[in-house]
């Protein structure tokens, strides 16, 4: 026997509320874990101003840096289902953060994406910032402001995971001293990504990286950005010295490791 309409409505409402509470708890737990891990590694939070919808952390030594290593997080928990934006984009697996924690360099920073690790979300956090407009002007401007607040005009190496690699390309067009781009399982070109996954074509073209040296990592078991797609995108986007390194056992979220000895050798060969 079917429950009366009001009962069905109340049941649906309870399910929705429980799902929302579960998502909130997951985001809060992820945020607390990230804050603890970053603090334990000596990274402190940057002051980006009250109007910012971003969080960023950095570690530095007293001496002037020769170059900053800046890590850009992926899209995070952007969708909860097909065509359904999530209520909070905080990543469950913050891959870029893990790579930042492993980096032995003296000057390291980690940029979360807008609205990630914010509890509760401020009014300005519309879901478009982590879905349809995740590479849009508002997001790019906020990311650039955070980058400039930490590194200023100093030399920068940008390391982006997944969609963070796309934003790293965008930032490289606007920061004057980017000397290296590193993509970790990155989607560098929306057009080829959409074609590969049979998605609607994007409205705007992805920006090329110009002649900045580009080091790309792809996972042999990555079904989101497989090696063939990564190779195609790198050839299309990188107009300067570039290299693709395939990790045969890696899935989209890893395991990933940056071999800085190999990366430095690549940079030296690019000179």
From TrEMBL:
InterPro entries on file: AB_hydrolase_fold (IPR029058), Dienelactn_hydro (IPR002925)
Superkingdom, natural source: Bacteria
Pfam families, per database record: DLH
GO molecular function (one): hydrolase activity
Residue ranges annotated for the Dienelactone hydrolase domain, each copy included: 143-252
Descriptive protein name: Dienelactone hydrolase domain-containing protein
Organism: Halomonas salipaludis
Biological classification of the source: Bacteria, Pseudomonadati, Pseudomonadota, Gammaproteobacteria, Oceanospirillales
